[in-house]
Automatic annotation (TrEMBL):
This is Nucleotidyltransferase. It comes from the Bacteria. Pfam families: RlaP. It comes from Streptosporangium canum. PANTHER family: NUCLEOTIDYLTRANSFERASE. InterPro entries: RlaP.
Length: 216
């Protein structure tokens, strides 16, 4: 029998992307990210449940809870921002518990992950023919990571930076100015900041154990 992991076992569904950042335009899609909990007995089989599922809605992607937690512990920017999305469309008790421990995933690894992801995006940009939307999101990622390093949580809504970021998206800002903005943000990352050296793996593992037992 086919198991419908999404939506039947979905415990958290949030909107990410431009609509969550406050940077949407009339053409923006609704990007959804979620977490599902596969029934525990399925792990006793040789064929394990999937680590992620695409769909069934357009632009929807969901992780199995253990994979999600692993990525969050590694300070994956996309995953961490899911935990702070201002648009929560669906949440079950296991999803509420996940949001309650979201700070357990945080560590100074986020300094490297946010700047590293932004650098990777920057290297893919051609100064002669920039993809301005990608440039905007590269800057947005640095803003979010800097806020995380300074204040202990990522900045998802970009209200204070909206006009300037959308100007970048429209190509109304020179490439030189984009480079300067990127350099200023990167240089502003603190050496230690508000984040602990390591995440609280014990708390995350306790959450997973309780969640697996509840899914028996």
């Amino acid at each position: 029998m086919e198991v419908r992991y999404v939506p039947d076992h979905l415990v958290l569904s949030v909107v990410v992307g431009s609509r969550a950042y406050g940077l949407e335009t009339e053409d923006s899609d609704v990007d959804r990210r979620g977490v599902f909990v596969a029934p525990t007995p399925l792990f006793w089989r040789l064929t394990k449940p999937p680590t992620h599922v695409e769909g069934p809605l357009p632009e929807q992607f969901s992780w199995e809870v253990e994979r999600f937690c692993g990525l969050a512990l590694e300070a994956n920017p996309t995953v961490l921002e899911c935990l702070w999305s201002p648009i929560v469309e669906q949440v079950a008790p296991a999803g509420e518990d996940l949001l309650a421990i979201r700070r357990a995933f945080l560590s100074r690894r986020a300094h490297r992950s946010f700047t590293g992801y932004a650098d990777a995006q920057f290297r893919r940009l051609d100064p002669e023919r920039p993809r301005w939307k990608q440039a905007m999101h590269m800057i947005r990622l640095l803003i979010s990571g800097l806020h995380l390093a300074r204040h202990g949580e990522p900045l998802v809504r970009m209200d204070d930076h909206r006009d300037r970021l959308l100007a970048v998206r429209r190509g109304e800002v020179s490439w030189a100015e984009v480079q300067r903005w990127r350099a200023e943000l990167t240089a502003a990352f603190p050496g230690t900041g508000a984040l602990p050296g390591e995440p609280d793996r014990r708390r995350v593992e306790d959450y997973l154990a309780v969640t697996r037992k509840a899914a028996l």
